[in-house]
Specification:
alpha+beta; seven-stranded antiparallel beta sheet; 3 helices; 7 strands
């Protein structure tokens, strides 16, 4: 009986240790995502007086967004992650039939760039890492999932540069204007105005 107990205890103690080191083989991850971004504000909106809720959301103004990130596991429960996300938002009074805003005819666009670095603590994991644990990760062929719960803290930066658009005829008029005695401080020369009609509302 003693000869049987020794191999049994060795097996019980060594298997958890061996499985606990498998995460080191897959401690680096690159991930990406695709989505959409939208604007809900005082441009466009519902075909009536602004409601300041989801009814003012214009699906025609939705633009694509993307994200890429890198995660490195320090140990099985702790990781450091870097994220880079890019999207575009826009708003246009042409998207509403409400009289005042439609006649106002304002529009804007802006790139949105966000980057962040964060530390993550995984307090819950459903499944294991590695092909040996296919049953535990519930993989069926190439399809499967692994559920993990975590909390994070970090620091990030956000870039937002809204641009407005000149009406075509008005833009051409301004683009060919020059300094006059009545407006000595104004110089609407071709070099000072964007050729495509879009200009920075808030230069950064």
């Amino acid at each position: 009986m003693k000869k049987l107990l020794v191999p049994l205890f060795l097996t019980l103690f060594l298997l958890p240790e061996a499985s606990g080191q498998l995460w080191m083989r897959e401690r680096q991850f690159v991930f990406f995502g695709l989505g959409a971004s939208g604007f809900m504000g005082d441009l466009g909106g519902a075909d009536k007086i602004g409601t300041q809720d989801y009814r003012d959301f214009n699906f025609r103004a939705v633009r694509p967004a993307t994200k890429i990130g890198y995660r490195y596991f320090i140990n099985y429960d702790l990781s450091i992650t870097g994220n880079l996300a890019f999207g575009y938002v826009s708003g246009n009074d042409r998207h509403t039939q409400e009289t005042f805003r439609n006649n106002r005819n304002l529009q804007f666009r802006s790139p949105v760039l966000e980057t962040s670095v964060q530390g993550e603590w995984f307090f819950y994991t459903d499944g294991k890492v590695g092909a040996r644990y296919r049953d535990q990760t519930r993989n069926i062929g190439w399809i499967g999932y692994r559920l993990r719960g975590y909390v994070f803290a970090g620091i990030g930066g956000f870039f937002f540069n809204p641009q407005g658009y000149f009406d075509g005829a008005h833009y051409l008029t301004l683009n060919h204007a020059s300094i006059t005695p009545e407006n000595p401080e104004i110089d609407f020369t071709p070099e000072l105005l964007p050729r495509d009609g879009w200009y920075n509302l808030r230069p950064l």
